[in-house]
Amino acid sequence: MSADGTDARQITHCAGDCLKPVLLAAEQIAYTMVTRTGNRRRSTVYVCETDGGGAHPITFGPGNYETETALRNGRIVLSAAWPLVADGKTAGERTLYTIRTDGSGLALLRDALGRDENLTNAAELADGTILFVQSRAAGRSEVAGQLAWLPPGALHASPVTDLAAVYQSATELPGDTLLASRQRATSGGHEFGLYRLTASGRGRESLFYSVPGFSIVDPVPLLPHPAPESYWSILHSGIKAGRVICLDAYLSQDVAGERLERKIAKVRVLALDARSGHQFVLGQVPVEADGSFYAAVPANMPIRFELLGLQGEMLRAQQGWVWSRNGEDRGCLGCHESKGLAPANHWPLALRRFDTPILLTSPVHSQTVGTSAGNP
User: Fold this and answer.
1) Which end of the chain is more exposed for a tag (fewer CB within 10 A), N or C?
2) Which residues on neighbouring strands pair with residue 49, listed in sequence order?
3) Cβ atoms within 10 Å, residue 132
4) Are residues 111 and 37 in the same domain?
5) CATH no. for residue 36?
6) Do 123 and 77 share a structural domain?
7) pLDDT for the residue numbered 363
8) Nearest to 253 by CA among 152, 345, 340
C-alpha cells in the first residue's frame, strides 16, 4: 500500500497467517507463515517475489522460525527456539539466527544466546549493531522487554536499558536516536507508546506518540535506507544432497577447556521426518585423528549428530536439528564451538582421505528419542 494507507493490494495467499514481512534485495520478500493444527502452532519462513509469486520455504524442521530483519550484507535474521526441537520440548528459550535468502547457512548470531531468555524483535543499526528485545523465557517469572545489542565484533550482548522499563521494539532514527515502543502506566492499565531515546540508552527519554486506550508497537520510519545486498545462490535443485564438513569435533564450548577429552571414533547422523516427528538413523561416518569428518546428507531434511566413543558409547548428542540445502557445502568448526574461534590453517584429514563425502542418504533403522549427553 501507499504510505497514506491507500492502494492496498494482497500479495501473499497463505494456508495460514502471513506475518512479519521483510524486504530483501532482488525484488523479494521474506515473511513468516503460521499454521495451526489443534493447539499446535507451527511457523516457517518463506521467500517470494514482491508480487507474491514463487513462494517457497527456506526453513525446515521444528523451531517455530520467525523473520526479524534483513541485514545489509544480504542475510536474514530469524528468531527461533533454542535448541531447534519440537514445541514443548524446551524451557521456552528463543534466540537469534542468521540465514541466507536461499535457506542455506543457518547459524547462531554469534554467541547471542541468553540462557532462560527470549531474544526477538531484532533490527540492524547504521553501524552494523544488532539491536533486539531481551525478555525472560515462557514459564518463568516475567521480566520482559529490556533492550540489548550486539555491536560489530562483539560476541555477547550488552544491555542498552535497565529493567525498570518494558520495551516491545525499537528502530533507529537519524541523529543517534532510537524510536522505541515502551510500556507506560495509564489509568486503564499498561499501554505502549512511542518514545525517543539516545542510541546509547543513557539519555533522557521523551514521549513521541501515544493514543489513550491503545498500544503503539513496531514503528517503521519512512526514511531512505540502504537496500540489502543481493546474495547469489549456488544451490542446485537437481542435487538431492548437501555436504557437511566438520573440522574438529573435539571442540566444544560446553566442556571445561572447550575440548572433549575422550576419544571420538565415529559420528552417527540422524534425520527427522518433519511431518510425523519420527526420527531415524542415516548412518555413521569415521572421525579422523584431527577430529574431522565429511558426509553427504539428504537435502532439506532436518539432521543432527551424535558423537560415539571407541565402544560405540554416546559421548555427546546434538539436541537441536539443522539442515543442508541442495548442493550446499555446510561447514562447522566443532561441536557447539565458540564463535570466537577461528579454524586452524590446515588440511583436514577427512578431506585428504576422501575425494567425495561418505553418502548417508538412506535410512538405516528407526530410533526412539532418548536423553542426551550434551549439546554440540
Assistant:
1) N
2) 28
3) 28
4) yes
5) 2.120.10.30
6) yes
7) 62
8) 340
Helix-, strand-, coil-residue percentages of the chain, each rounded to 5 = 0, 40, 60
Q: What is the mean pLDDT of each run of 10 residues along the chain (376 residues)?
A: 90 92 93 89 94 95 93 95 74 86 92 72 94 75 73 87 85 91 76 88 81 91 88 91 92 80 94 85 94 94 95 91 94 74 79 80 48 42
* Range of the structural domain that residue 265 is part of: 241-366
CA atoms of 220 and 44, how far apart (whole Å): 23
Are 203 and 188 a contacting pair, CB within 8 Å? no
Q: Which of 68, 121, 75, 73 is nearest to 98 (CA)?
A: 75
Q: What is the phi/psi pair of residue 258, to 5°?
A: 55, 30
Residue 142: predicted pLDDT: 46
User: Are 77 and 170 members of one domain?
Assistant: yes
The pLDDT value given to residue 369: 37
Both 160 and 274 in one domain: the answer is: no
Among 240, 236, 258, CA closest to 249: 258
| Torsion sign, CA atoms 315, 258, 329, 271 | positive
Which H or E run includes 353?
A: helix 349-353
Q: Between β-strands 365-366 and 303-308, what pairing exists: parallel, antiparallel or unpaired?
A: unpaired
Q: Residue 194 pairs with which residues in a beta bridge?
A: 181, 209
Cβ(168)–Cβ(203) below 8 Å? no
Chain-centroid distance of CA 322 in Å reads 10
HSE-up of 60 (CA within 13 Å, CB side)?
22
Whether residue 48 is found in the same domain as residue 110:
yes
**DSSP β-ladder status, 329-332 and 241-246:** parallel
Nearest to 19 by CA among 100, 98, 93, 79: 79
Q: What is the pLDDT of residue 336?
A: 67
Q: What is the pLDDT of residue 17?
A: 95
The Cα–Cα gap between 99 and 240 comes to 20
